[in-house]
Design a protein that fits this description.
Helix 2 crosses helix 4 (53-70). Helices cover 54% and strands 13% of the residues. By secondary structure, it is α/β, with parallel strands linked by helices. It has a five-stranded parallel β-sheet.
């Protein structure tokens, strides 16, 4: 069982790259936000509105822990985390215990904001520019704990996935089934 976990700020491309990387490697793909939405029968924006961020973070940690336990006997997995999941120490510890390889997808804050504004998806923490910038700055130290970092600015999804595949090979992670 191998895990490659994509982390990064809102708009970094974790879901898009994750799906493409899973297809490229012939692994399974999950987005943790999708897992939470299925478990709670509500979308992330609705959970934030009804219960607040602390409750969402608790649901996020529970979902990640359950996923890692459920997947132990399963097949290889590309997992996209929400922007705040890796910031939580208990989540990082769970990923380390599971032997996950973490890859930070990174871009300048202006580019991330542009990508978020271009999406139709409701992002509760992306509504105000000042808050967006504060979160970005606050999360950088935790993001830097990822094993690998891939810059995504001005790169196609194909270029990013190829770069991640090469990093995995360099790290001696067997990517073939």
């Amino acid at each position: 069982m191998r895990y490659v976990v994509l982390i990064g700020f809102m708009g970094a491309g974790k879901t898009t790259v994750g799906r493409a990387l899973a297809k490229r490697l012939r692994w399974n793909f999950l987005d943790l936000d999708d897992v939470i939405e299925q478990r709670e029968h509500k979308d992330v924006a609705e959970i934030f509105a009804l219960f607040g961020e602390p409750a969402f973070r608790s649901m996020e940690s529970e979902a990640l822990e359950a996923l890692l336990q459920d997947q132990q006997a399963g097949s290889d997995l590309i997992l996209a985390l929400g922007g705040g999941a890796f910031v939580q120490k208990q989540n990082r510890d769970a990923l380390i215990s599971a032997g996950a390889i973490t890859v930070l997808l990174e871009a300048p804050v202006e580019e991330l904001r542009r990508r978020c504004q271009a999406e139709r998806k409701a992002r509760p923490l992306a509504q105000q520019d000042a808050r967006f910038n504060e979160l970005f700055a606050a999360r950088r130290a935790d993001y830097s704990l990822a094993r690998f970092t891939v810059q995504t600015l001005d790169k196609s999804v194909e270029q990013v996935t190829a770069e991640i595949e090469q990093l995995l090979k360099t790290a001696d992670v067997r990517t073939e089934k």
